[in-house]
Amino acid sequence: MRRALLLLLGIVAITWLEFDVFPGHSYLEGASQIYLPVLERLDTPGFLSRDLVATHPHVSYTIYDEVTLFLREGGGMSFKMSLLTQQVLCRAAAVTGVFLLFVAAGLGDILALVFAAWFQLGAVLHGPCALLVEREPTPRGFSFGLVLLAMGLIAREKPLLSGLVGGLALLYDPVMAAPLWLVILVAFLFDRKLRGLLRPALTILLVFALLLANLAQLQPGVTDSQPVFARLPADLAALQKLRTDYVWVSSWAGKYMWGYLGLYVCTVWAVTRVYAALNDLLRWLFLGLSTCGVLAVAASALSLDHFRWALIPRIEPAQLLLYSVAVASITCSIAGCRAAAARRRREAFAWFLVVAAIPVNAELFDLLGPRNRSSLLNSAVWILLALGLMAVMRYYGGKRRPGLMGVAPAFAVILLAAAGTGESSPRMDVNGIHTVAAWAESSTWGSSLFLFPDARRVIYPGVFRAESRRALWVDWKSGVEVKYSEPVGMEWWRRWESAMQEPFSPKRLEALLPLPIDYYVLKSSNRLAKIQPVFATREFVVYDARDLRQAPGPLELARRPR
User: Fold this and answer.
1) Angle formed by the axes of helices 109-119 and 79-104, to 10°?
2) Is residue 365 domain-shared with residue 387, that is, in the same domain?
3) Side-chain-side CA neighbours of residue 76 (13 Å)
């Protein structure tokens, strides 16, 4: 009982540190800018009726919206609190799952907690633009955390619990959960020794698959019905390469894919080194999931880059590389610990180099010849972190200088945070947008339409839309819709090209006045002369479109006081 309580406290502490300190979390800085307007409109259909994002939801095959709306209505939570609650629980699931995987591989409780904490430092997957520890509260991030817990439970021979958690992951994001269930199904078919253990989990899978299909049929709101086997038109393919190039493997594979293949080779090598210490389920999970990640990239390249299958940008299979990176971190950690325990220090250091490279976001081959100052710094931090992991083994193995060795891991993590390698999403550009959103919510009609003509590609218009529940004519973040729908994507591009593509000027603002926009929000530096804004803060000024249309002369910028 005491051991279980201490382990629970350890998992809670790791979850709190990685959620609140490093790598942390974010809200309305990334994909949640797209999901929240959809949730707002599902909750209150009278709002955001003129917004491209809110009126074209793509949450049919996920319980993300149902759970969030239930917590809001049944639990009395705000949208932010309901999303962050799910995020914290799924982060805790990820920590628990990785801990169970290390325990199943024979590591002691303390080492399993240490390396589970190390795993939670996360990593940025350059190319497919995925995060090992997702900072935003998104369905894919929730599903990945639940998959890790399901892996840990099945490795500890808890098929019923694993099936329930894996089924929940399937409901949050079927694509992210699919590799786990595929590996379990293949193991069931080809490994007779595991059939009795895996049968309950597969029975639960069938139940959750039927539930997912029923939920999709009952999905409220407007959904875009796109043919499953449609081919991308050339103009939409070109637009996707401009706005969402990360879904096209050909745009990044030449630069980054060799590093991912290197991690895959390290995974296979590590599994062969510790093969005897792994149970049958761990072998299937590690080799199967890592292979799924690599094959998903090949499948994406073939089906999208070659055949232009329209379904691929919507499901983004290349993001399944998360499994290859995650499994590489876990298996190389196990191999390093085994080598260190056997006093094969050079081998252990080599494995820990790979483990340290993942949160540093370093290219695996940088040590062979750093190409610039940044890669040289990464390599230095990389080596120091590997030494810190060696220190963990020496400290908890009770070898030499326990006091000094106990400080080394903490020092290594401080170096990682100081290097800023975990930074993965943009920070807010202008904090004053919250004041403008509060004014818009209380002082304008719910159907009002806004435009930020001088915002260009920064993210604060999306924050305004989510917090004010007021529609935007166009903004850069909404451009991700080009992945989901041809009509919506082409309409977004038409609006962006006419309203935001060129730098702001009063003359361009005049050309926008015939549009059905009710309010224009400008930065204070672009305040207009002779026209009184309806609202102003230190950062922004808001103009009523009627006042601009009735201006006595050409629009001009106000002169700045000298």
Assistant:
1) 130
2) yes
3) 0
Q: Is 426 helix (H, G, I), strand (E, B) or coil?
A: coil
Give the CA angle between residues 412, 413, 416 to the nearest 5°: 95
Number of domains in the chain: 2
Q: Which domain holds residue 470?
A: 433-549
Spatial neighbors of 87 by CB under 8 A, at least 6 apart, are: 19, 25, 137, 141, 142
Cβ pair 99, 337 in contact under 8 A: no
One digit per residue, pLDDT tens: the chain, 562 residues?
788 888 999 999 999 999 998 889 999 999 999 999 999 999 998 899 999 999 988 877 899 999 999 999 888 899 999 999 999 999 999 999 999 999 999 998 988 998 999 999 899 999 999 999 999 999 999 999 999 999 999 999 999 999 999 999 999 999 999 999 999 999 999 999 999 999 999 999 999 998 888 877 766 554 555 677 889 999 999 999 999 999 999 999 999 999 999 999 999 999 999 999 999 999 999 999 999 999 999 999 999 999 999 999 999 999 999 999 999 999 999 999 999 889 888 898 889 888 888 887 756 555 555 555 555 555 566 566 666 666 666 655 544 444 444 444 454 455 455 444 444 444 444 578 999 999 999 999 999 999 999 999 999 999 999 999 999 999 999 999 999 989 999 999 999 999 999 999 999 999 999 999 999 999 999 999 989 999 999 999 999 999 999 998 899 998 754 4
In a domain, 525, yes or no: yes
Is residue 182 domain-shared with residue 278, that is, in the same domain? yes
Residues whose CB falls within 8 Å of the CB of residue 505, separated by 6 or more in sequence, listed in order: none
CATH of the domain at 495: 3.40.190
Contact 436, 542 (CB under 8 A): yes
Task: Check if the beta carbon of residue 555 is closer than 8 Å to that of residue 526.
Answer: no
Same domain, 494 and 414: no
User: Tokens 């800018």 — which residue?
Assistant: 33
Strand bridging mode 540-544 / 519-523: antiparallel
**Is residue 467 situated within a structural domain?**
yes
Q: Do residue 133 and residue 232 come from a single domain?
A: yes
Q: Has residue 401 been placed in a domain?
A: yes
